[in-house]
Amino acid sequence: MSKTPIYKRVLLKVSGEMLAGDTTSGIQPEIISRFAREISEVRDMGVETAVVIGGGNIFRGLAGASRGMDRAHADYMGMLATVINALALQDALERLGCFSRVMSAIEMHQVAEPYIRRRAVRHLQKGRVVLFGAGTGNPYFSTDTGAALRAAEIHADIILKGTKVDGIYNKDPMKHDDAVRYDALTYKEVLQRDLRAMDSTATSLCMENSIPIIVFNLNVPGNIRRVILGESIGTLVTTTDSKS
């Protein structure tokens, strides 16, 4: 394992549910504080760090639509939830002295900068953590797709997808004791096997732009740093052949 970062610029994707911990909703202060410490540590290693957080701990657009809400209306509510989470993480980062910027795809000047690609890159170059909120700014797109889009726009070296499990499995490891974890997969294998590491639109976007994805367990303290240093954890999704 390298003692220096193997990536210069990364995008960390975190689901909103991760912030709720063992509860069903809301933001657990100890969890968001730990995430902030780990992100700050990576930034201090000289790695340019961007973050996309989902909003499922507050409101999920698909869930609203399934209960009869207009899908576009529900998705906009979900986008606003991601901004709330981004602001919470910004507060936790800046209490550690880690400068950050929240950039929103939906303009709300009082609380966030409007998303401008070149400005986002400049913030990263200046050592600020950039928190992308409000997804793509459009309904019908997931935060996974928003993360893939932002990663492509800022030329991130890799997407780090933090989850509650330690990689991609052939079936749900929470439900099946015989589930098998993959060490590596190709984008096409993820799509053809419907493994749902990220949604198909996000995976296709990463494939088209050759952006690797690492899916790893974010609940294990220190795992972000381990990934940055090249330790073999989680599942790597690239153009190369897979191995299980």
What's the gist of this structure?
The chain is an alpha/beta fold and 244 residues long. It has helices at 17-20, 29-44, 61-66, 71-94, 117-125, 143-154, 187-192, 200-209, 223-228, and strands at 9-14, 48-53, 100-104, 113-114, 129-133, 158-163, 168-169, 181-182, 184-186, 213-217, 235-238.
Topology:
Elements: E1 9-14, H1 17-20, H2 29-44, E2 48-53, H3 61-66, H4 71-94, E3 100-104, E4 113-114, H5 117-125, E5 129-133, H6 143-154, E6 158-163, E7 168-169, E8 181-182, E9 184-186, H7 187-192, H8 200-209, E10 213-217, H9 223-228, E11 235-238
Parallel strand pairs: 1-2, 1-6, 2-5, 3-4, 3-5, 6-10, 9-11
Antiparallel strand pairs: 7-8, 10-11
Explain the overall architecture.
By secondary structure, the chain is of the alpha/beta class. The chain has one domain (9-238): Acetylglutamate kinase-like (Carbamate kinase, 3-Layer(aba) Sandwich), CATH 3.40.1160.10. The protein is 38% helix and 19% strand. It has nine helices and eleven strands. It has helices at residues 17-20, 29-44, 61-66, 71-94, 117-125, 143-154, 187-192, 200-209, 223-228, and strands at residues 9-14, 48-53, 100-104, 113-114, 129-133, 158-163, 168-169, 181-182, 184-186, 213-217, 235-238. The strands form two sheets. The protein has a nine-stranded mixed beta sheet, sandwiched between helices. Helix 2 packs across helix 4 (71-94) and helix 6 (143-154) packs parallel to helix 8.
